[in-house]
TrEMBL record:
It is a single-pass type II membrane protein. Gene3D superfamilies: alpha/beta hydrolase. The gene is LOC117731827. Its EC number is 3.1.1.23, 3.1.1.6, 3.1.1.79. It comes from Cyclopterus lumpus. This is Monoacylglycerol lipase ABHD2. It catalyses: a triacylglycerol + H2O = a diacylglycerol + a fatty acid + H(+); Hydrolyzes glycerol monoesters of long-chain fatty acids; 2-(5Z,8Z,11Z,14Z-eicosatetraenoyl)-glycerol + H2O = glycerol + (5Z,8Z,11Z,14Z)-eicosatetraenoate + H(+); a butanoate ester + H2O = an aliphatic alcohol + butanoate + H(+). GO terms for biological process: acylglycerol catabolic process; medium-chain fatty acid biosynthetic process; medium-chain fatty acid catabolic process; sperm capacitation; steroid hormone receptor signaling pathway. Pfam families: Abhydrolase_1. Residues 419-440 are annotated as: Disordered.
Length: 440
């Protein structure tokens, strides 16, 4: 029996190397397949999908802003993966980030808080010849020192825009809180104070409101809260916001696109930010935060748990549902009458596909709204590049400024009624004659 087995083994001996080679080839093929699928290499590039109504303004925008119809080409090897775009933005922000020179402004708030924003003057004249200020609201826990903000500001400055960037309350590591609260999902107080300061300091300036991610919710909510908030605002642009706070948080518990992991990572970052202000939140008079709340914070593994134990209590909301409903722009965005440009990416792992029906429906029903949906870009990534290395400027940087430029020229060529805070996007642009009165 032993001799037979030895003989059988000897007869199979020459075939074993070939079998092992086959296993190796199968393993290599499997790895390549996984890489192709994960990197989404088979996906084709194309221009963004634009949802809009046919108006004189939309036709003008398509003619004046080539980025709306131009193909967005991410870096070939990794740019078609929304996860890598998001991770690269989160880890690095941008490449070759410029150094900015600006002035930090401190604004006392009625409740004792101190809002801060950074002001950066334009580095040249605007092509429309007007004084225009970008009033920018960054993403969750972000501020003017973040790389993606610095890159965007530098690009805007060079195109003739003054830039004011809100620093979310509690986000700057070297600025202490002066009241027992931090920024929240939809608190517009600090953004409103910055806008009002800009209007007073520069009576001739026009405004372009820009919001990134959570900042997009704040900007849209602010504009919709009162018609007067839209005075002197030329347009509003938001990038990668979720529109409905409650629905965003519900989708963050789902595992598809690894959103549950992103939820955990964002919660961990928020937890560290809140705990860095632990003594202030506990020590100042009038605080709604106690030791029990902080104990719940330590155990939190999701943003929803942090919102329930800490964030909603800054403004006295009785429940998490009330907090999300009152802080979301969903109840205000339909009241915005200035031109709005809403940008999202199909492969954004933080924003569920169902949430994209909100801006799509708005663009289909409201003539002042344009919705752009890219196939790639991740969450605030939108890197461009031929093969491996991304370019310093992203598609996002260029399209936001390009849209703002087009609206500035559209407003420049409109008749005198354009000064109304309730602009009609259906009124045709008209060349201004030398006798037309100047903008107040």
């Amino acid at each position: 029996m032993t001799a037979l087995e030895d003989g059988d083994m000897g007869s199979f001996g020459p075939e074993l190397p070939a079998m092992f080679d086959g296993v190796k080839l199968a393993a290599v093929a499997t790895v390549l397949y996984v890489i192709v699928r994960c990197l989404n290499l088979k996906s084709t590039t194309k221009p963004p999908e634009i949802v809009h109504q046919d108006t004189p303004l939309s036709r003008y925008l398509f003619k004046s802003c080539s980025m709306l119809t131009k193909e967005y080409i991410p870096p070939l090897l990794w740019g078609k993966s929304g996860h890598l775009q998001t991770a690269l933005y989160g880890k690095m922000g941008r490449v070759n980030t410029p150094t900015l020179s600006g002035t930090r402004k401190f604004l006392p708030m009625p409740d004792g808080a101190t809002a801060t924003f950074d002001l950066f003057e334009a580095l040249g004249d605007h092509s429309a010849g007007d004084d225009v200020t970008m009033v920018i609201c960054p993403g969750i826990g972000n501020h003017s020192e973040k790389n993606y903000i610095r890159t965007f500001v530098d690009h805007s400055q060079r195109r003739g825009y003054r830039c004011a960037v809100l620093n979310h309350l509690g986000a700057l590591p070297n600025v202490e809180l002066t009241s027992p609260r931090m920024f929240t999902y939809g608190c517009t107080w600090e953004y409103a104070a910055m806008v009002e300061h800009i209007k007073r300091a520069f009576p001739q300036t026009l405004l372009v409101a820009v919001g990134f991610s959570l900042g997009g919710n704040i900007v849209c909510k602010f504009l919709g809260e009162s018609p007067s908030n839209q005075d002197r605002v030329l347009c509003c642009v938001t990038v990668c916001q979720g529109y409905s706070a409650l629905r965003v948080q519900e989708t963050f518990f789902q595992w598809d696109q690894c959103r549950r992991l992103y939820n955990f990572a964002l919660a961990d970052r928020m937890k560290k930010l809140i705990l860095s202000h632990r003594s202030t939140l506990l020590g100042l008079a009038g605080s709604n935060i106690g030791e029990v709340d902080l104990s719940r914070l330590y155990a939190a593994t999701s943003l929803m748990q942090i919102d329930d134990s800490i964030m909603r209590k800054f403004h006295g909301y009785s429940s998490l549902k009330e907090y999300y409903e009152k802080e979301s722009c969903m109840n205000y965005i339909h009241k915005v009458t200035v031109p709005m440009f809403l940008i999202n990416s199909s492969d954004d792992p933080l924003i569920h596909q169902s949430l994209l029906e909100i801006p799509r429906t708005l663009a289909e029903k409201m003539p002042n709204v344009m919705f752009a949906l890219t196939q790639h870009g991740g969450h605030l990534g939108f890197f461009e590049g031929a093969m491996l290395f991304p370019q310093p400027l992203t598609w996002m940087d260029k399209v936001v400024v390009g849209y703002a430029d087009a609206v500035c020229h559209w407003e420049k060529n409109r008749p005198a009624c354009r000064r109304s805070s309730h602009r009609d996007v259906n009124s045709c642009p008209k060349k201004r004659t030398p006798g037309d009165e100047r903008r107040a």
